[in-house]
Amino acid sequence: MSINNSRQLENDQLANQFEFSIVGGIPGGSEKVSMRDITLRMDKSFEPPKEDVNVVDVWFRGSKVPKTTNVEATDKTFSVSVRVDENWKIYNALKKWKMKVYDPNKANSLGNMSTCTDTCVNVFNHKGDKVKTFKFINSKLKAIQVETFEHSSDEPTRITLDFIYQKMEDGIESF
User: How many domains does the chain have?
Assistant: First the structure.
């Protein structure tokens, strides 16, 4: 790419302009937080999953030649860290969702239809316009962890949410 072409690319995307949303609300959460799209407050990083393809080694005349296969090797997991509201309403709704995925007290779970929903990470430009969406189809909450409480901190309480998903869409069409 020449210098003239790179100048036409406009401003760099800033890494701090994004939000996390649960499309259609939290499955199984309370009525106050489950019946609408919900955007959770974030102030930590988000790393999109690495999209990966399986590789096999083919040996040719004593040399290893790596080849890609028709098998996806993506991990299909992601994590987000979100801020907790002072009445813990979001946490409680998320915990209800997690208990529907697997309830250790009853040793049972509900099926995928009632425990999966789409989630999104929306990215914004410097003007506040949405310019990219990473949509995770059929996301399921698999773990919740309350981050460390600390007396000397004035930071908000956060929870880390671990998800699995079926498919990630980012607006790029396949051929």
Answer: 1
3-state class (DSSP) for residue 31: helix
pLDDT range class, residue 61, cuts 50, 70, 90 = very high
Tell me the pTM: 0.80
Look at residue 174 and tell me if it is in a domain.
no
Helix (H) or strand (E) holding 58: strand 53-60
The owner of tokens 């955007």 is 39
Contacts of 92 (CB under 8 A, 6+ apart): 29, 30
CA dihedral 55, 57, 63, 65 (to 10 degrees): -30
Strand 117-124 to 130-146 pairing: antiparallel
Nearest Cα residue to 80 out of 168, 172, 165, 160: 160
Structural domain span for residue 27: 7-169
> Is residue 65 one of the residues assigned to a domain?
yes
Residue 35 to residues 25, 28, 29, 31, 38, Cα–Cα distance (Å) = 5, 9, 9, 6, 9
